[in-house]
Amino acid sequence: MTAVARLPWDHVPAPPAAVPGFDVERVRADFPILKQPAHGHQLVYLDNAATAQKPKAVLDAILRYYEHDNANIHRGVHYLSERATQEYETARKVVQGFLHAGRASEIIFVRSTTEAINLVAQTYGRVHVGRGDEVLITAMEHHSNIVPWQLLCEEKEAKLRVAPINDEGELILEEFEALLGSRTKIVAFSHVSNALGTVNPVAQLIRRAHARNIPVLVDGAQAVPHMAVNVEDLDCDFYAFSGHKMYGPTGIGVLYGKTALLDRMPPYQGGGDMISSVSFEKTIYNKLPHKFEAGTPDMAGAVGLRAAIEYVQRLGLDAIAAYEHELLSYATEKVAEIPELRLIGTASQKAAVLSFVMNGVHPHDIGTILDQEGIAVRTGHHCAQPVMQRFGVDATARASIAFYNTKEEIDRLAAGIEKVREVFG
Ligand code: PLP
Questions:
Q1: 383 catalytic, yes or no?
Q2: Which domains does the chain possess?
Q3: CA nearest to 363, candidates 378, 345, 385
């Protein structure tokens, strides 16, 4: 009989050492999807805030999981079930290391950022928010950090308060602070805005909320692909992100929560794995993190997410942030030269996003013409309609960058925008 290769259960894989320097051509070779034409041009993919492309390491890890390890987890005593369980739990530990969480049991696997926020609203929120209480968000949130709180507030007859932003798309700190009151039961805001690219001063905002003993949820969907995040340093109570926006697969996301809060929260969904015993009289819930993971989870998704995290760790998050910062500055300067173009979102701290409108041209027409040039951008309200209202537009065109984009691609974007001007000139 051959011995089963096992990882010790307490083994937390060390992050791979970052490769010094940033060789974008070498990085691009890891993304097969980028090497294809679109409408007769070399594809330029600038829709990374919607979903990022996956390196071969992620695709291979998912294939390897299904070829070698697949079985249902936790409940099996057989060889494959143990292996699959190990893969899944090791992925959790890799996420723990990635976010610098104190414990692996503080990492809850969910479907996405959306599900993570709904989970908190429907568990923590339903217990702690009552009639006349307040939930504070900001004016730059994605719908998935608005609607779950609206649902909660409607049900509980509570009030949703919204901290305003200025003309640059930055949160107005004094107004945020003024809205923190004795009735505020939870605060939720994005780390990075998907529609504007604004990077919020999250540590500062968290300190201000904590000074009044108010817990904070941070929506990190647009942050984790672009910068190192340390939830213990930030001291946030909850942090949410999606795998697919950070080079991992769709269908997997993460909710980090502090043990003290998660422990006191009721389960979100009922089903297999989230219980320790069930009878018709009484069900005892499982311990963390399983209490919040009802049913068969996305095992292959967790494996793919681990591979994505290890991939960005190999590149080095600081190297990624520095490279992308340079690219964003280059792109901002380039498009600023284009007459009739207005940038939406000009915060002093920005990441990855270039949102713009053009006089007399509907953003959908911008997107369509760029598409004909092989350039993928997103047009619309970006699931942030209140942001559009704040800036008096229905929609914007949004180019969002990743570390595999290049200055040549930004030049192609600028040339594409010139073409839009010619067509509508
Ligand atoms: N929050 C922000 C800031 C986002 O940009 C997005 C998606 O664009 C979400 C939340 C929702 O992410 P998902 O659709 O993966 O749940």
A1: yes
A2: 79-313 (3.40.640.10), 317-424 (3.90.1150.10)
A3: 378
